[in-house]
Amino acid sequence: MSTTPPRPTPAEHDEIARLLPVPAERERPGRHHQLLKDQLLREFRQDAAPAAAKPRFGVRRLTIAAVPLAAGALAVTLATGGQLDPRPGADPLAAVTPDSSGSASGRTGGQATPAAVLLDRIATVAAARPAPAVRDDQYVYVSSTVAWSSQSADETVMRLDTPHSRKIWLSVDGSVPGLLRERGKNIVLADEVDKAGRPVSDHPVGNPAPTLNSPTYRYLESLPTDPDALLEKIYAETKGSGPGPDQMAFVTIGDLLREQLAPPKVSAALYKAAARIPGVTVVDDSVDAAGRHGVAVARVHAGERTEWIFDKKTLEFLGERGVMVQDMPWASSGQVTATTAILARGITDKTGETPGRTG
After folding, report:
1. Whole-angstrom Cα distance, residue 76 to residue 85?
2. What is the pLDDT of residues 70-108, one digit of tens each?
3. Contact 117, 105 (CB under 8 A)
4. How much is the pLDDT for 91?
5. Domain ranges in the chain?
């Protein structure tokens, strides 16, 4: 039996399209409809794999949020009991002393894996960042360069888009609409908008019911800071959806870090939780959409490797990359399927402003 998943037939394309949400009920930016469609197609292919490796089919809702937060470029020297050296410039893969709790996260035979070492160091730096003072009436601002792959119904392969600018303003508490500025368009991020992107209510809100896959800053504040409890919550709330529990957990943590800010302790817990997911590895050299090289935390699923890229010296988050590691009918090994780069982030008082000035 061939282990290569078959490409969906036209009838299967129609069935997948039927499962997509109706735009008239809750309009989302067109790019996100395309992302959802692409994800459905990928998961359908994964579902067509042999039974031994076949995940339970499920649709993970792709939301407005779309790029991870910085681990923090901090020049700090911390006393850590000899376990970690969080100083910028230290070897991110340096050996660590097992902690006194005897945690088995990311460890084999009592030895920490390179991914666990790196994520522990990233978490230490993230936890040392000062907690920002953020008001409910403010916005999280992120500026990035992005490019994603898409596949039309009449094409056999996925094609990477041209990298382009993306700026987003997200309501801190979700009570008011946000704003997405991309490809020369201003898109209101409201709970309900019409086909032209205008709010349908006289009192529109942005994100009144945040979730793991669509967080606000206040929602992130409410998450457990214990990595085991946090990971347990992620597994429980994503059970039965997406491409298997471990990959779904890894993807969900990435979603929680995208185009948002998280309190330092929550940010650290997310990185430590990621270290506990089986199959997480390190890529020694990766490059973001701005051409910056760094070390990456990665996981492979269905022939595609998802990479979170960090500066090797400061452990600042640089961006993300998706790359094929084996040939598939829709992509070739070595093909980049997605690339992003964080250029700026901060807190603003209004949409359309950048931190420190209007514009």
Report:
1. 10
2. 333 322 222 233 333 444 445 555 543 333 333 334 544
3. no
4. 55
5. 58-73+128-348
Long-range contact set of residues 197-203: C-beta below 8 Å, sequence gap at least 24 = 197/27, 197/29
CA Rg, the chain, in Å? Answer: 20
- Residue 287 has which token pair? 């490059």
Q: Could you tell me the two tokens for 310?
A: 């960090």
* Structural contact between residues 178 and 169, judged by C-beta atoms closer than 8 angstroms: yes
Whether residue 158 is predicted with pLDDT greater than 80 in this model: the reply is: yes
Buried residues in 298-332 as b, exposed as e (16+ CB within 10 A): bbbbbbbbbbbbbbbbbbbbbbbbbbbeeebebbe
Dig out the tokens for 9 from the structure.
């037939």
Instruction: Show the tokens assigned to 91.
Output: 């070897």
- The tokens for 88 are 């910028």
Whole-number Å distance between alpha carbons of 11 and 16: 9
Residue 87 sits at φ, ψ, to 5 deg, of -70, 135
From CA 48, how far away is CA 229, in angstroms rounded?
33
Using left for φ > 0, alpha for ψ between -120 and 50, and beta otherwise, residue 217 falls in alpha
Q: How far apart are CA 122 and CA 101, in angstroms?
A: 19
